Amino acid sequence: MKTNINKVPGSMMLLIAITLAFSSNAQTTKTSKPNIVIIYADDLGYGDISAYGGDVKTPNIDRLASQGLSFTNGHSTSATCTPSRYSLLTGKYAWRKQGTGVAPGNAPLILDPEKNTIADVLGKAGYKSAVVGKWHLGLGPKEGADWNGDIKPGPLELGFNYSYILPATGDRVPCVYVENHRIVNLDPKDPVHVSYLAPIANEPTGLNNPELLRVQSSHGHNQAIVNGIGRIGYMTGGKSALWTDEDIAAVLALKASKFIENNKNQPFFLYLATHDIHVPRVPNSKFLGKSGLGVRGDAILQLDWTVGQVTKTLDSLGLSKNTLVIFSSDNGPVLDDGYVDEAIEKLGTHKPAGPLRGGKYSLFDGGTRVPLIVKWPAAIAAGSSSDALISQVDFFASLAALTGQKPGAGDAPDSQNVINALTGKSKSGRSWLIAHAGTLSITKGDWKYIEPAKGNAAASRHKELGKSAVAQLYNLKNDLAETRNLADENPELVKTLAAELEKVKSL
Ligand code: NG6
Ligand code: CA
């Protein structure tokens, strides 16, 4: 039937207009350009939040879970920070490239500005991007960053429109914030000097002046002293720019919220890399003593507060419905990571890795299987869960697909588009998974193979590395805690998985 538009009564026209507006709006909400927020915790284990069974109450993170989709089999690519972050941003396994291990605080930028990052790709889709928080991917040219001038290349040369970062980690100098190309609050009359070789001038060190420390080191962390805490690396100057550890979470939450507010009228991508719960664990007095598990637990409360701040900002601006929030961690949990902070003594019954074996630094699943929660009310059913196998290296291709972008030739070679699994439309993610902690493992179906490697099986009683001189094969379905090495009983399977691993290595 042909409708003569002039003959349709006014009230009917209004109804049609409203219907059209709503249906097209619903359409836009679903398919086009949700805001994207990745909240990337540091050293948070699979069992460290209450939504995943932990003893520490994390109501804000749990709310992401109850309003979104929780994964039981989500993985960082590596069991330490720098390589996991490298892979997340580039869609390429860090172990393919030399020099992507835990970076010192004066490392040059280890990502290639000529190659596209996830921020570049989302930029092409019209997103404004920011990184707020722990960077730990190096800054500056090969000769090192000019700490007192323009610090570049860095995030702004990698597709981010705004950055407010800790250059490396909380336990590494320089202990300053860098906003875009500059150290924040730097007095030019008091320039920053950084060295990873020797103390600068007569600077006191944790080694020589332990009486100046309020947290003792258990290993390392005895060089520069900033805010009464020994760090890795030496540093002088920049007095007015030094961070206060107790305030880091609040500063980052504020910068993240500001960025969201400033970009509320267009699609944005926020990569919020919290410092919590990495060492040194120096939570704000608001959280001190509140978890009952010592400062490690208190830092988890602080992390949860950060998540709450971001959620509140999104809610108050009416953005929550069409914002895709991804919450995860860069590697598994660690207790003593170099400071005497009673993480072990005050643990109680809490199991940081939940039912998994190993943690940070480990090839056992505790090293890389981490909480992964995705919330996007416009498209994902509330309170759902998924066993789909997901690697963070897949965020690149998945978010590119979601926003209608095709990674260019040479971009993100290891990233698979698993957006349907990430948004709960499909129950299956990737079919195999590579994890990295010095050496590599491959998981396929119920089976996991860890290649033989030289080196210690453990760094200490609480730090199993998962390494062995012989091949290891575990059935994760029957033995999630990887207690029985079945390699000898299944030589064919070992051969097949080893060959598959070699194939991926040679890509
Ligand atoms: C180790 C540090 C540890 C932590 C880690 C990096 C010592 C003894 N240990 O070398 O404290 O900083 O590097 O952690 O110094 S990560 O999460 O950033 O990868
Ligand atoms: Ca980490």
Characterization of the model:
The N terminus is likely disordered. The protein has a 10-stranded mixed sheet with strand order 7-6-5-4-12-1-13-14-2-15, with helices on both faces. A 4-stranded antiparallel sheet has the order 17-18-19-22, with helices on one face. Strands 3-16 form a two-stranded parallel sheet. It contains 9 helices and 22 strands. It starts with 9 loop residues before the first helix and ends with a helix. It is globular, with a radius of gyration of 24 Å. A hairpin with a 2-residue loop joins strand 6 and strand 7. Helix 5 runs parallel beside helix 6. The protein is of the alpha/beta class and 507 residues long. It folds into 3 domains: 350 residues, Alkaline Phosphatase, subunit A; 44 residues, no CATH class; 69 residues, Arylsulfatase, C-terminal domain. Bound molecules: 2-acetamido-2-deoxy-6-O-sulfo-beta-D-galactopyranose (NG6) and calcium ion (CA). The site of calcium ion has 6 residues, from loops. Belongs to the sulfatase family. Keywords: Hydrolase, Signal. GO terms for molecular function: hydrolase activity. This is Sulfatase. It comes from Pedobacter heparinus (strain ATCC 13125 / DSM 2366 / CIP 104194 / JCM 7457 / NBRC 12017 / NCIMB 9290 / NRRL B-14731 / HIM 762-3).
